Amino acid sequence: MGSTSSKKSGKKLRHYVNWFEIPALNLQRAVSFYNHIYDIEMETTESPAYAMAFFPADNGIGGAVVTGEGCVPSEVGPLVYLNGGKDLSPILNRIEDAGGRIVMPKTLIDEDSGYFALFIDSEGNRLALHSKS
User: Fold this and answer.
1) What whole-number distance in Å separates Cα of residue 104 and Cα of residue 47?
2) Up-side HSE of residue 91: CA atoms within 13 Å toward CB?
3) Residues with Cβ < 8 Å from 4, sequence gap 6 or more?
């Protein structure tokens, strides 16, 4: 059934993610965690129902940390791979200092695909880092 629908649309998608949200219970704690591991400053915005902190992105896929109804951190479910840059080691090395936990150290996928590592963030979300080296 999947092949029929792609033939009907005429044009196949090449990128399947265009935004991501990482749930948090404590926005300030989560922002501090990601600011520390990436050495960034996230901008935050609040509404009566939700609060969000945005990962700086000039182009490509953007995302945010979000708190509010239904935003429940989890170690199960879909796994988001965050960009580890040229070498994910510097970011990975800051995770525990920021209040996270490394679940799988830097691991080679293969020479073409590069490396990945799994971690639990300050809020209890299971995430991954990926880099070519």
Assistant:
1) 36
2) 25
3) none
Contact predicate 9/58, CB 8 Å: no
Q: What is the identity of the amino acid at 92?
A: L
Measured in degrees and rounded to the nearest 5, phi and psi for residue 66 equal: -135, 140
| DSSP-derived 3-state class of residue 89 | helix
Pairing of strands 62-68, 19-23: parallel
Amino acid at 106: K
* Region for 77 from its dihedrals, namely left if φ exceeds 0, alpha if ψ lies in -120 to 50, beta otherwise: left
pLDDT one-digit tens code per residue, 52-104: 999 999 888 999 999 999 999 999 999 999 999 999 999 999 999 999 999 99
Q: Where are the beta strands (DSSP E) in the chain?
A: 19-23, 43-46, 50-54, 62-68, 81-83, 101-110, 114-120, 126-131
Separation CA 92–CA 28 (nearest Å): 20
The residue type of 51 is: A
